[in-house]
Amino acid sequence: MADPQERTGRRRRIDIYRHPVAVRVTHWVNAICVGVLLASGLQIFNAHPALYLGQSSNFSRPVLAITSDLPAGRAARGHLRLLGVAVQTTGVLGVSPGADGSPTARAFPHWMTLPGFQDLALGRRWHFFFAWLFAANLTVLISYGVLTRRFRRTLAPTRSDLSRIGASIWDHLRLRFPHGPEAWRYNVLQKLTYSAVLGGLLPLMLVSGLAMSPAIDAAAPWLPMLLGGRQTARTIHFLSAMSIGLFVAVHLAMVALSGPLNNLRAIITGRYALYVSDEDDHGWS
InterPro entries from the entry (predicted)? Predict the structure, then answer.
């Protein structure tokens, strides 16, 4: 399973096989799908940048809205309105520089959407194609993880793990990441986060997206009702997508801070480098 590579002082490097092929392939397909879905989803959201609760829209009482004010003779202003409270977001949300640099009234800026110009029909084509690819890939990943018991082995936290939550948070805040044998397994924060994303956020984003489809609504009207109505499903879809976006940002930051080359190599080739001493070496080589 592991090959000695080099000796550095009293510690030596060994390569372990961390990620099987199925995990690596589904990881990269998921990465592409989520990126396209987020960008094309913001394009779709821009067509009506407001969220509601229930079955139908209540235009006078949105839960969240991104608005643009274009007063005559004055500079355009953008606002984020959440539960009736407005915050000026000019330059990012509501009003932002267009492709030509001039102020443009649109909820999310052009550099965050796919395509960059306003085109709802094209954004929907991108979104729906990659939504089905994402659903198929997620099904493969979850099936593989359950059938091979990989999820149980790698993601289920033990009592010992849970007792170290505080210490793990403190280590992360100090940017202290393991590189020895303890790096072989996910820490408790990784286990809890990956479990929440794979078992909660990603399926929730998928199901809430299906609940907004007219075809699915006609075939299974109970699905949007299960989520509280089509508008509630749209709100859930948006919030779960934003949570996924936040997860991706934090995930990339942790990858960069904990050893980008080693982490990238592992998710491409499957091989991950550990640095162990003779005292640590219990059958690694």
Answer: Cyt_b561_bac/Ni-Hgenase (IPR011577), Di-haem_cyt_TM (IPR016174), Hydrogenase_cytochrome (IPR051542)
Listed in sequence order, the residues at least 6 apart from 108 whose beta carbon sits closer than 8 Å to its beta carbon are 42, 45, 46, 49, 66, 93, 96
Q: DSSP 3-state assignment of 149?
A: coil
What are 30-62's pLDDT values in tens digits?
A: 999 999 999 999 999 999 999 999 988 888 889
* Confidence (pLDDT) at 110: 93
Handedness of CA 277, 280, 284, 285 (dihedral sign): positive
User: What is the total residue count of the chain?
Assistant: 285
Lowest mean pLDDT among 74-83, 134-143, 188-197, 257-266: 74-83
Nearest in space to 19 (alpha carbons), one of 275, 283, 263: 263
CA distances from 193 to 119, 187, 204 (A): 35, 10, 15
